[in-house]
Design a protein that fits this description.
CATH topology of one domain: Serine Threonine Protein Phosphatase 5, Tetratricopeptide repeat
Strand order of the largest sheet: 3-5-4
InterPro entries: ARM-type_fold, CSN8_PSD8_EIF3K, eIF3k, PCI_dom, Transl_init_fac_sub12_N_euk, WH-like_DNA-bd_sf, WH_DNA-bd_sf
CATH superfamily of one domain: ARM repeat, domain 1
Helix content: 55-70%
Number of strands: 5
Order of helices and strands: EHHEHHHHHHHHEHHEEH
CATH class of one domain: Mainly Alpha
Family: Belongs to the eIF-3 subunit K family.
Radius of gyration: 24 Å
Subunit structure: Component of the eukaryotic translation initiation factor 3 (eIF-3) complex.
Shape: elongated
Strand content: 5-15%
Oligomer: single chain
Protein name: Eukaryotic translation initiation factor 3 subunit K
Keywords: Cytoplasm, Initiation factor, Protein biosynthesis
């Protein structure tokens, strides 16, 4: 699972270099290379610093960085965004992706992937090649964590076959994954632990009735 970090508090040389430059001048062009090196560290360590990555995309815009230079970094950041769903990081990063970058096939696929995941069209998501995303360690596992979370918010009991389709896994792999989240097996279904979102709640009706209207109603009923 992707671990969120922040360069202000992370104990690494690359994060410290970013912090030092941000403290000195957060808009200096030299910060770009420092943020890129820090992004490489995030890829290698399975972490994500949303603030730092958004800063990198903004600096690319400010300094009109060539598209060919931006492209691999933008792809990595979008992949990291998918891995942190349901965080708004992917949405924010996608707003900073230029039209020139959007013409790239990998970027187009990643933006489409984000749309499919956020609208819970999970089987369609798994049909995308997403070659660039597969290069990032832990990508599939992070996405499946998000899918399990989404299902758990909408179901208290769910068919095992349905879950397997959403996760794109065989039955044994599904069972291992969901039982690790506390789900239990009940025949051909899974029972999901109760949470604030998957339980039926009584509807509450509130009507604003003037006191004079209430008196008129009582008067009619008492005749």
């Amino acid at each position: 699972m992707t671990r969120a970090v922040n360069f202000e508090s992370t104990h690494s040389a690359k994060a410290a270099a970013v912090k030092k430059q941000v403290d000195a001048d957060p808009l200096d062009e030299s910060l770009i290379s420092l943020l890129e090196a820090y992004l490489d560290e995030q890829i290698a360590t399975g972490t994500v610093d949303e603030e730092a990555n958004m800063m990198l995309l903004k600096l690319y815009t400010i300094y009109s960085t060539p598209v060919d230079h931006q492209l691999p970094r933008a792809i990595q950041i979008l992949v990291k965004g998918l891995m942190t769903l349901p965080s708004n990081f992917f949405l924010g990063a996608s707003y900073l992706v230029s039209e020139s970058l959007r013409k790239n096939k990998d970027v187009t696929e990643l933006l489409q992937a984000g749309s499919l995941l956020q609208t819970c069209l999970f089987p369609a998501f798994w049909q995308l090649p997403l070659v660039s995303a597969k290069k990032v360690p832990g990508f599939d596992a992070a996405v499946r964590e998000y899918i399990v979370s989404a299902i758990s918010r909408s179901h208290d009991v769910v068919a095992a076959a349905f879950v397997a389709q959403q996760l794109h896994l065989d039955s044994k792999e599904v069972e291992a994954l969901v039982t690790a989240h506390g789900w239990t097996i009940q025949g051909t279904s899974f029972v999901v632990p109760a949470n604030a979102d998957n339980q039926m709640r009584p509807k509450k009706f509130k009507e604003d009735i003037a006191f004079t209207d209430l008196l008129d109603t009582i008067n009619v009923l008492s005749r």
